[in-house]
Amino acid sequence: MKKVIMGALLLGAVTSATAVKAQKANSLSAKEKKEGWQLLFDGKTTNGWHTYLKDAASPAWKVADGALELDQQAKKNGAPGGDLVTNDEYENYELSIDWKISSGGNSGIIFSVHEDPSFKATYLTGPEMQVLDDDKHPDGKITKHNAGDLYDLKKSAQKAVKPVGEWNTARIIKKDGHLTLWLNGVKTVETTIGTPEWDTLVASSKFKDWQGFGKYSKGRIALQDHGDAVWYRNVKIKLL
User: Fold this and answer.
1) Nearest by Cα to 188 from 106, 233, 116, 131
2) Which InterPro entries does the UniProt entry name for this protein (predicted)?
3) pLDDT tens for residues 169-227?
4) Could you tell me which residues come within 8 angstroms of residue 176 by beta carbon, excluding any fewer than 6 positions away?
5) Overall average pLDDT of the 96-104 stretch
6) Which of 6, 68, 74, 115 makes the best surface tag, with the fewest CB within 10 Å?
């Protein structure tokens, strides 16, 4: 009887693992739907996104193999680049997103972006979770510029990035100013916007004299065009 029970438990575990593995990219499980998750990327189009300060997504951002890809060849052929931002704004949420960077590449996930012509770039208002090839990009040698860091503000408590060519899963949880960053299941950064700690972080960073930086509690989510090939998929959000 014990062998039968153990066999059933093992079969159940294998079946469960297979079910998780079988979930398609850019889709929501029944559990995720019940919990209130929403897809921000359908895996086929750039619907729901546009280039910052533009009406539509630049053709440099294409969808290939179920991922949003910043196509450098398209840019060389004259397609304009620019950061890709959500059409909608968000304030309290949990964001989950997979990313993969090119060799020596740099990008970022920028949030609380206030889209206004007076701010010429997303990073002038939005903090960033760094996306980077730590080993080959020069920023990899700079503290608070590594993958998973809150860029130029707070370094990761633990290094969690995967090698170039592999998918990483980032999570950003933002609730009433409290901010937690996760990379591949590891909590990398925790802080609270608007607190004395936050003010000290900003004062010690390149953003110290940027009047709009970190000032907007609600804003768009941006995928950064830093001039290198990068891929994003499984972009999901749950409002809190």
Assistant:
1) 131
2) AL/BT2_dom
3) 999 999 999 999 999 999 999 999 999 999 999 999 999 999 999 999 999 999 999 99
4) 92
5) 97
6) 6
Give the whole-angstrom CA distance, residue 80 versus residue 106: 18
- 79 vs 192: which has the higher pLDDT: 192
Predicted TM-score (pTM) of this structure? 0.89
Q: What is the dihedral sign for C-alpha 212, 216, 220, 223?
A: positive
* Residue (of 231, 238, 236) closest to 99 by Cα position: 231
> Which residue in 163, 165, 157 sits closest to 189, CA to CA?
157
CATH class (in words) of the domain with range 36-239: mainly beta
Closest alpha carbon to 145 in 112, 113, 179, 108: 108
170 contacts 179 by C-beta, under 8 angstroms: no
C-beta of residue 216 within 8 angstroms of C-beta of residue 110: no
Q: What is the three-class DSSP state of 203?
A: helix
Domain residue extents for the chain:
1-25, 36-239
Helix (H, G, I), strand (E, B) or coil at 1: coil
Residue 21 has what pLDDT?
57
- Residue 48 CA, distance from chain mean position: 16
Cβ neighbour number for residue 76 with a 10 Å cutoff: 9
Bridge-based pairing of strands 168-175 and 49-51 is unpaired
Whole-angstrom Cα distance, residue 24 to residue 44? 13
